[in-house]
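Hey L., structure's done. Input below.
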Amino acid sequence: MKDQANISLKGLAFLLIVSFLVILCRLVIQVNKESYFRTFRKIEIPPRHSDVQTAEAFPARESITFILGEDHDPANPYYNEALKYYRFNEEDRTEYVIDSCRSLLSVKNYLENNPSGSGQPWGLINLVVHSNEWSDMGVPVVPNGKRASIKSIEEAINNGSFVHLPPGIIDRRTDMIIHGCGLGKNKPLLRKVSTAFGGDEPPAVSSSLYFIFYESDDYNGRPENFRRYQANYWYAFYPTNQKPAEIKLADQLAQRYSNYHIDWEDALSRAAPRWPGDEYVREFRVPVVWTVTYPSKDSRPDLGKREDQLAWVAAETELQEALRDTRIPLEYFNWTVRKIKIYSEDGYSVEYAVQAIADCTILCVLQALTD
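Output:
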């Protein structure tokens, strides 16, 4: 009996020890499990800008619009209508609309001297300008300077006349939208504008692939119903002042756009749409002006004959490069080559030069996008 009692006590002790070890292992596992999840919860992936919608994460930013020109054709009040649109349209109006800047440098200077009132970098910057995919932006880089292009912007950056904005004015979350026709097809130019303004903090610069129009209605002298719409376009070329018959222009369009089922002759007969989505035609010129100076009057070449003029043009390699940049076939340019004098501002000195003007007219068939 005594031996049985000892065995029972030993068994009980063994069971108690095993139970204790099991409980201890469970506690250790539980502690480790909780420690693991505490560590896991601390490893948080930082949200992207687009994932955060709360004002607490990103305080509201202000918007501004620059109208970079004035209208010269009463039939095309582009800038005036854009001015009204960004002031009064319920969805797209901005806190500020500035109509006094006439160059990219003046826009940059305005932004630098007038930071956003929110204390944050600008959220949206609109630049309203005439443009097309063949001749870049219809505004100079610096006052009275060259039309804004990749080359002219690079020159202004390299010579120090255009220095990017200091930190805090714009950043990578700033949207800069250039409202100009077809400029979205020139992505290298958009990237160059971004670098010029932002430096190490370039804004996101975008533009439309289509033509842009602004309109409003007039009710007893009061403008209402402010609209912006885009239009798809198809184009044909011809040398300026040498317009061919419409049937030949229609043939050029039909060959270039064989996949589109459009009555090109009918479209060419209208300067305005009959209804939304109707095709109609607009024309504009793309001149390329090239001037070469010479040390004296007599050192200029003899350009009395047409073949001499065209030979001089063909020998100007930089001019040929400038023409290729327009992406317009050379046969669609009309040439004017002449000898000129260039007088200094004070009128006391003169330079002798040869000036060539290559002039192309682009005929665009437009169709407003109704969807």
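The CA atoms of residues 179 and 277 lie 21 Å apart. The first strand starts at residue 63 and ends at 67.

-- N.
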